[in-house]
Amino acid sequence: MARVGVCERQTRETRVEVRWELDGSGVAEIATGIGFLDHMLDSLARHGRFDLRVQAQGDLHVDQHHTTEDVGICLGRALQQALGDRAGLCRFGHAIVPLDEALALVAVDLSGRGMAVVDVPFTGEHIGAFKAEMFAHLLESLAVEARISLHARLLDGKNDHHRAEATFKALARALDDATRLDPRIAGQVPSTKGTLQI
After folding, report:
1. Angle at which helices 35-48 and 65-83 pack, to 10 degrees?
2. What is the rounded distance in angstroms from the CA atom of residue 20 to the CA atom of residue 3?
3. CB pairs under 8 A, 24+ apart, for 118-121?
4. pLDDT for residue 88
5. Contact by Cβ (8 Å): 134, 72
6. pLDDT tens digit string along 95-104?
7. What is the mean pLDDT of the chain?
């Protein structure tokens, strides 16, 4: 059975469509109107081996906030749907990923409870044309809507592009590990509670 999540969100500010297939091969079809965001989501798909389609149109003439936030919301909702009842999952994943001088750590728990702790500072206000302040907000929106615990921490790095990209690559690898099916538990929910649903 395919593990796929789909989210469509339309407001007066944005229109976003996301399709996230967990058991993919890293095929990415991304168009948000924000070049650096596209680059990060392409990295998420390729290094997590997810097939990911993200199409977004937003009020970029105002700023990037609404588009970035709604992309994060839709990513989270699609992931939540793709995870289903979370039975048989490895549940936890973590990765430490280098990119040149940058080093990032990400750990995730598909806990059914959405929260994020993001400690990834940047030296400038923008990464390319992307507003650096939106980076943490994107991850927070994804985590809350996906109902996962997400911790992201920069361990080293000077270049803001490298800092952000290393973090997204670590997120991809952590999610790849956490979303894998563990044949040893044969469809059981990996929780002493017996459920990972709210």
Report:
1. 20
2. 8
3. 118/150, 118/151, 118/152, 119/152, 119/153, 119/154, 120/152, 120/153, 120/154, 120/163, 120/164, 120/167, 121/154, 121/163
4. 86
5. no
6. 999 999 999 9
7. 94
Does the predicted TM-score (pTM) go above 0.90? Answer: yes
Cα separation, 76 vs 149, in Å, equals 12
Question: In angstroms, rounded to a whole number, what is the distance separating the alpha carbons of residues 19 and 32?
Answer: 14
Question: What CATH number has the domain bearing residue 48?
Answer: 3.30.230.40
Note whether residue 20 is domain-resident.
yes
Close Cβ partners of 193 (under 8 Å, ≥ 6 residues apart): none
Q: Name every residue whose Cβ is closer than 8 Å to that of residue 155 and which is 6 or more positions away in sequence.
A: 96, 103, 104, 105
β-partners of residue 130 are 127
For 96, the enclosing helix (H) or strand (E) is strand 92-99
Axis crossing angle, helix 134-146 with helix 65-83, rounded to the nearest 10: 30
pLDDT digits (tens, 9 = 90+) for 170-187: 999 999 999 998 887 777
Distance CA 42, CA 167 (A): 13
CB 163 within 8 A of CB 120: yes
Task: Specify if 191 maps to a domain.
Answer: no
What is the span of the domain harbouring residue 133?
A: 4-185
Instruction: Judge whether 193 lies within some domain.
Output: no
Residue 196 located in a structural domain: no
CA triplet 128, 130, 133: central angle to 5 degrees? 125
